[in-house]
# Entry
Amino acid sequence: MKTSKKSHFAVPTIQFEGAGSDNPLAFRHYNPDEVIDGRTLSEHMRFSIAYWHAFRGTGSDPFGPGTIVRPWESGKDPVSVAKIRMDAAFEFFQKIRAPFWCFHDRDIAPEGRTLAESNKFLDQIVAHAKQLQKATGIKLLWGTANLFSNPRYMAGAATNPDAHVFAYAAAQVKKALEVTKELGGENYVFWGGREGYETLLNTDLKREQAHLAAFMHMANDYAKEIGFTGQFLIEPKPKEPTKHQYDFDVASGIAFLRTHGLAKVFKFNIETNHATLAGHTFQHEIEVAAAAGMLGSIDANAGDLLLGWDTDQFNTDIKELTLAMVSILRAGGLGSGGFNFDAKLRRQSIDVDDLFHAHIGGMDAYAAAFKIARRILAEGKFAKFVKERYSSFDTGYGKDIEKGKIGLKQLEKLVLTKLGEPKAKSGKQEYLENLLNTYLHG
Ligand code: XUL
Ligand code: CO
# Structure
C-alpha cells in the first residue's frame, strides 16, 4: 500500500495461481494481467468493490445487530474514522486487484446535523478519496446518493408526497453528482430505494411517477451544466424496502423512461438478485436491456431462491454467470459499466479473510464464465441453431412479415392456397441443455 502509514490486512496481494492451486487465497481463473484480444482480463472484467457492503456492512439483520467488527473502525471523530476506513478500503481494493470501486454519499462520509454539514464532511472525505485514487490508480465506476436510509425518506425521495423531502433529495443528488464528477466517476446510479409505495390507499401513483421523472430530468440537466459526462444508470428492483417499487424490472423501467422522455439519458444497472426477486432470470434482464440498446452495468451478486428477499450473496454459480456472460458479450459488452460486487458477507462470516474469500470466489466465477462464454460464442453452435430456427423469416413471405410488407389478407390467401397446416418442429431444449453442459463440464 503506497498511501497508508500502516497496513490493515495481514493477507498479501492476491495472486493468480491457476486452476491447480489449492491456496484458498489465490485466484484460480481470474488472472488480471492475462491479455485476451489485446486487453487484459482486468480491463475486460472491470470489477468493482461496493463500499457499502465491503466496508459498511456489519452483518446486522432485522433480528439482531451487527456481528462483524473491523479493527480499523476507530478514530477521534466520525470524519477521522471515515478516513481510516477508506485507507483500509483502498488497501483492500489493491490487494484484491479490483480496478474500480462504487459508493453512496453516506457510505463514505458521516451524515451531519444539517445538509451543509453533511456536504462539508463529504468534501473532506472526497478529497481523501481523490488522493487515494491517485496513489493507487483505482477508479470510480459509479457514485450514487443514499436516498433511502434516513427516516426523512421513509415515504420516498423523489416520489415523496411532501415537496420539501423532494427538494432535500434533489439537493443531495446535486452534491452526489458533483462529487462523482470530482472523482472521475464513469457512471452515476439511480436505485429507487423507497420510490414506490406501501399502500395505494394513500398514494397517487401517477403523480409520484411524474415526480420521479421530473427529478431525473433535473439531474440530467445539472449533469450537463457541470460537464459530468458519465453514463446515467437506473437499477431496477421490484420490492424491498417498499412493497412495490416503480422501477420494478428492466421492462417496466424501459416503459417508464420512454414515457417520460428519458430513454436516451439512461442505461440499466442490472442486479442479479433484483432480477430473481422480479421473477426473472439474470440473463432475462440482460437480454431485455440489450434488446433495447440499454445494457449499462452489472451489480454482481446472487439471491437465495428459497428466500423471498435480497440476500445479496456472492455469486459462484458458473452456469448462471456463463449464460449472463453470453448475453453480455453478444450485446457488445458493458461499455463504461463493469461488474460491481453488490454483495455482502453472511452474518457468520466475521473474519477479515472472509472478505477476501468472498471476492476471490466472485471474481473467479465471473472470469471462468467469461472464458466459457467466449468459447460458446466463438464456436457459434447455439447461434447457428437459433439462426436456423428463425430462418423462415429470412426469405419470401417471412421476410415480408419482418419488413412490414405483407398483411393479414395476403397471409390468409397464402395459407388457404399454398401453405396449409404448418409442420411441428422440435425446440430441442434438452439437446441444447446437454450442449451447454459440454462447455461447463466437458
Ligand atoms: C439495493 C441496491 C443498492 C444499489 C445502489 O438493493 O442494490 O445498493 O445498488 O443504491
Ligand atoms: Co445494487
